[in-house]
């Protein structure tokens, strides 16, 4: 019996169900295997589904092939949201050139660009920290659409990431001149950048203005930012007053707020009050999450109570999958206290706990081993770090190499230089430290071999 052919509608259903992007691609390209296939009438939904699956899987070359195929379709005009999704994928992957190219290509698909695609592009460039390109896109935005509140919120966020208080105020003032009404996101971002730059009086003034002059109620994000600013300034009592204000105004307290309060209590030496905050969380229906547990772990590490920190980690493992921050905090605490064996043991145990070390993990352990003069133990950590594509801090490498040179540990120095060369991490400063040793120490392995190592791409 002949197999029933897949219709365009059925293809969309099958694509939606297929979890494997490679199998989904094969299905899309060849829905009805036939020696003499007729052109398949793809639907816009099918294109949308396969592009989304490939983009999420970072299969960008394959995704672009599908996009090119869509360009020749004549039965429909692709919607702007498809291109917005593609731009977002490129932004998350830190590929600003591809994001810009996609935006430029939109008219070739007979699709009009609006504020939606411009804002998506600005947000993608923000993810890539391409601030100058953001400015260029914004300046030329008038060719496509007028900026809206979302546009200015993205620009405000850029100022926040650069700790540019003046730039944030400039964005806010320009909004008002254009008659664009700020919303809760605008005020929240402005207050955040003010708090991060210790301008608490201005931040509280903005909080009052947003309610009185703009009829915008402060939300959880605003309160969380203010609390973090107060915590940073050691104004713990004011932070708790803000928490009570939230309760009075029936504003939902989330884990960010409670985690900030927990950190404040530890910093103020009031760890005995932490239990009360956790109980209040549960009474208010706010379940502790990874952020809360990490605040507890950090607090106990500051207290040098590593047994308690591990106890929290064990509790976390029962409820959630601990994120890498949980381990980084404990490893950092161990290194700070010179407990390098314990730090290395936890590092080696992370894969068993189903949590992969990240660049912070490697840097923290490597720096700790170097500070503790455990240079032999630091060398394989450096080699593994470079192998995984992570870069150590420049100052850490310089200190490491300098210690090896001062101690005359030439064999280990050679090993380290080879590791650095593999990652193309040898620069002119390394030359300045190592070359004098080549000239002065006859015991060094063949100097020409060392120079060759330094020149490796």
From TrEMBL:
Belongs to the PPR family. P subfamily. This is Pentatricopeptide repeat-containing protein. Gene3D superfamilies: Tetratricopeptide repeat domain (1.25.40.10). Pfam families: PPR_2, PPR_3. PROSITE patterns: PPR. PPR repeats lie at residues 148-182, 183-213, 219-253, 254-288, 289-319, 323-357, 358-392. GO terms for biological process: embryo development ending in seed dormancy; root development; shoot system development. The keyword Nucleotidyltransferase does not apply. Keywords: Repeat. The keyword Transmembrane helix does not apply.
